[in-house]
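#struct-help
A.M.: can someone run this one for me? Single chain, 205 residues.
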Amino acid sequence: MKVLLINGSPHEKGCTYTALHEMEKVFRESGVETELVSVGTNPIRGCIACGGCRKKGACVFSDLVNEIAPKFEACDGLVVGSPVYYASANATLVALLDRLFYSTPFDKTMKVGAAVASARRGGLTATFDELNKYFTISGMPVAAGQYWNGIHGNRAEEAQQDGEGLQMMRTLARNMTFLMRSIELGKEKYGLPEKEPRIGTNFIR
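D.P.: on it. Structure tokens below:
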């Protein structure tokens, strides 16, 4: 089992990292391999809807998105963590996720996804909802914890004092590990769910 964790914060060892690192410890104790990638300080441009990835099989812009793509393909679970900016995820992270999910042609069905948000005070649930949409559009089961996955603090030292937030991260990691292992057993016995050819319709004719 392998989990890829993406830290969307520009503060490499800040509050978002504190939350993800708490999960990492549980994963490792459970024998799950982890890799944490920090993306918040990278110059990642948004998608320009050129359609080039459909021909190339990768994004036309050669940056961190294409570097992360094979790690995403190889993992059993993906954790995405973001600080809250104006009740939303970090724009750099959103640009990366837009392009990563759209440009990668591999099947993401039954990879487990989990979202984590960090904030000084508010906007956690809006960011949490925003990030979960990347998973649900891709056939990825979403791992749940004991609350909406968030941690409070303005600095790492403050996040480390959020006992409930840290417990939420540990619970999430344990539940995610169980779900990944259960899915692996299910795939061995039953295989992946049957897929119909995609039907795309527009509201305006």
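A.M.: thanks! The chain has seven helices and six strands.
D.P.: also worth noting: The chain has a mean pLDDT of 97.
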